[in-house]
Amino acid sequence: MRFHERQRLAREQEIVSVARQLLASKGYHDTSMEQVAETVGISKATLYQHFPSKDDLVGRLIVEHLDRLLALLDSPADGAAPVERLAAALGLMVTVHTRGIGPELDTNAGAIRALVLDRPACRERYERVVTRLAALVAEGQAAGAIHPGLAAPVVVQAMFALSCAAGVVRGQRGDALDSATAGESVVRLFLDGVRRLPQPPSTFLRAERGSREGEAGATIAKTAGLS
Amino acid sequence: MRFHERQRLAREQEIVSVARQLLASKGYHDTSMEQVAETVGISKATLYQHFPSKDDLVGRLIVEHLDRLLALLDSPADGAAPVERLAAALGLMVTVHTRGIGPELDTNAGAIRALVLDRPACRERYERVVTRLAALVAEGQAAGAIHPGLAAPVVVQAMFALSCAAGVVRGQRGDALDSATAGESVVRLFLDGVRRLPQPPSTFLRAERGSREGEAGATIAKTAGLS
DNA sequence: GTCTATACTAAGATAGAC
DNA sequence: GTCTATCTTAGTATAGAC
Description:
The structure is a homodimer.
Chain A: H1 2-26, H2 33-40, H3 44-50, H4 54-74, H5 82-96, H6 102-106, H7 111-118, H8 120-142, H9 152-172, H10 179-192, H11 203-209, H12 213-224
Chain A binds a DNA duplex (18 and 18 nucleotides) through helix 3.
């Protein structure tokens, strides 16, 4: 009896894995249950016995993604500043981001967003993530570490949006720009923007922002949890 | 004879306008030709006489959008620095951004992206926009005004991605956060990132970055061409 | 439990009457 | 040139054999 249980779980994992890959490369609408079943090597009917609907399957992926984010956000701060925690969250979003999910979660239209808001399991987690991120922004602003003029909800949405950017570039180019570099650029852009002041005005700043860009990149990558 | 011509053009403009609105609020896949026809007040068949396919209609919208961007990018620099021109472009993208187009153009999957790459009229413009933006980034880096560690293609994709963020927020909240403020936040985040240095290190910097946030916001809004 | 075959639905696209 | 009615395709979902 327990053997079948395990086999069932294994197959379900296989399905989820395939679905994640397909969804990431083709998006929600262009990924059909037929393709998922075909890739796994089972029939559509069997697939529907594991997941009673497409949205159940996609919902599972979203829950997994959000749970990973929540685990990071709910972990003890360990003295990390709000800005660093935001960077770490963005780093995770960039690396595990599935292209099919992210963009449509950003859009306030789109099937994915409707799905998330519809399913309590997804909605609750999503709202917790958003709330948690917004709180970190507010915290950072109170501490003077984040521009007070930035609207917190916009910052949060910007993170979701930016989490896609690296993936696109990886898709466009061959290996000219590896994903680690792309992810690093995204996180740095989030932290420091594109603008760079003409000359580092003090040694303190030089140390803080990194005068040699290579070092700064490594630091940021470490902060964001990129490989 | 010429009367009919004009009437035809007028109706076509009406169709385009309706399509843009629907697409912006519901996205590509959730906007059907039926809905477009219904909203305009004509039948599907008539709609198909103006635009032989859905992609023709959507393609038209994309071309219009990209042409506006190109007009801005190809206008004489007038002494504007690369960073300022990038900010202006992003400002335009944020304001006229159609939610249905932007996100799927970011994704390297998605129907919209396929459409753009498929249709020469779209593809050529899109590539010109990307090239032009990337060149501005490189220019800014050469001048020392943009972080040299940032990968230019990533910056460009980040702009496309960020252009969605403001729209989402506007969709979520009521009027708590008006779209001008949201757009301003996005552009500022792009320029300066979220991180703010503890204390302005010199009067020069105070002036350059803006010590009172209100002023800085206004300056940025002006730079980006936001109302 | 897994497959084959099929029902059902929605959307893109077209034919033919007027 | 516009509409009604219809075709085609594709994708979700299910029934029934094994």
